[in-house]
Write a sequence for this structure.
């Protein structure tokens, strides 16, 4: 029977149990001073934000492929490193000081390129571990296998085309095929092992560029050591310095990082669609891989001669075509992130201009500087949560 208003209950209603409130973030001063405490899980679900996402979490069904991919990366990188140690051992033993100089150039190139290429990702840099794994793959597995593959394919071309044709076109007929496929394999493996690190074209561009950077660093070492013997070992240090500086200064803007960045964008297109792309995405990804291969072919081909002007023309063409891929990818990602941050900001009561400003590193630094020092850790934490939620939203939208 339904209760009536004047009936007495036999038992008093149980007092409500106090719920544990989430810790409140001290309200900052400035444009986003209206922000209340972070949204609850139910509130986040109503606004479409992921309720399960957390840094380092894996999408369902990716653990086993990630484990297999990690084993493949570890074995391949170790094998490539051992192979290259045997390749370089003689040069290091005979020309130790030249080897030290070459390794110093390699370390400086790697450190500077790693900083620059991670910084070109809009909004914030990729996670350091996937970035490092990408670079290590390029330095060890891709280059080690590339040396073997190039030798084998070069022998095939010599038999089919003759020594005359192969002498001029050997590099253009072997390296673009072998090296681009080996670098591409590394980008795919990084995407499988770190699915949250490569979820779209912009991630593929940056991580692909890091694979290419690692490849370029080791290739510079190889050419530096070879230059010592080709110059008659009259001045090993000068040979190493000249070769490395020319390779970095003359071809640096259009080298392996650019080609692998284009191929990595193709991987990002496929990963964004959970590796089940429609025909349009599949065709676009294939065209990007062909573009990367074509860039490599152009740089290694004898077209336009071998002079400095010819090399600069080729490098410019490679760099320009790479930027033609990067600029629209960057613009699209920033536009999506602005929309996603606006939604996340609305969910926590933040004004739209303040939320959208978090899309830039400068905007985030300014938001932190606008609050008192004791409040800055809470603001940084809020920014991290909002960026993570916005990136998850963008990844879902791109799928």
């Amino acid at each position: 029977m339904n209760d009536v208003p004047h009936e007495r209950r036999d038992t008093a209603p149980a007092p409500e149990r106090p719920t544990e409130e989430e810790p409140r973030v001290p309200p900052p001063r400035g444009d986003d001073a209206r922000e209340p405490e972070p949204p609850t899980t139910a509130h986040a679900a109503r606004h479409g934000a992921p309720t399960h996402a957390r840094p380092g979490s894996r999408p369902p069904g990716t653990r086993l492929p990630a484990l297999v991919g990690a084993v493949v990366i570890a074995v391949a990188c170790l094998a490539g490193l051992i192979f290259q140690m045997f390749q370089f051992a003689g040069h290091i033993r005979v020309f130790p000081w030249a080897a030290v100089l070459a390794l110093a150039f390699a370390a400086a190139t790697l450190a500077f390129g790693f900083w620059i290429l991670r910084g070109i990702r809009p909004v914030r840099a990729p996670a350091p571990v996937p970035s490092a794994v990408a670079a290590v793959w390029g330095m060890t597995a891709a280059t080690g296998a590339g040396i073997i593959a190039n030798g084998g394919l070069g022998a095939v071309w010599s038999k089919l085309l003759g020594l005359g044709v192969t002498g001029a076109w050997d590099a253009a007929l072997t390296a673009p095929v072998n090296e681009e496929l080996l670098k591409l394999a590394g980008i795919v493996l990084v995407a499988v092992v770190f699915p949250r690190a490569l979820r779209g074209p912009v991630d593929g561009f940056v991580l692909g560029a890091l694979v290419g950077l690692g490849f370029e660093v080791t290739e510079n070492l190889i050419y530096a050591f070879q230059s010592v013997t080709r110059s008659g070992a009259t001045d090993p240090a000068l040979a190493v310095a000249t070769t490395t500086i020319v390779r970095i200064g003359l071809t640096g803007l259009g080298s392996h990082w650019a080609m692998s960045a284009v191929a990595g964008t193709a991987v990002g297109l496929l990963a964004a669609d959970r590796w089940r792309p429609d025909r349009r995405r599949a065709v676009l990804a294939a065209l990007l891989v062909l573009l990367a291969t074509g860039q490599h072919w152009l740089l290694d081909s004898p077209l336009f001669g071998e002079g400095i002007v010819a090399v600069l023309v080729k490098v410019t063409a490679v760099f320009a075509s790479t930027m033609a891929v990067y600029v629209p990818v960057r613009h699209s990602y920033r536009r999506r992130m602005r929309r996603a941050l606006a939604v996340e900001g609305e969910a926590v009561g933040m004004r739209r201009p303040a939320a959208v400003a978090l899309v830039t590193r400068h905007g985030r630094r300014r938001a932190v500087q606008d609050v008192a020092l004791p409040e800055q850790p809470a603001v940084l934490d809020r920014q991290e949560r909002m960026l993570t939620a916005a990136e998850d939203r963008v990844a879902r939208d791109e799928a």
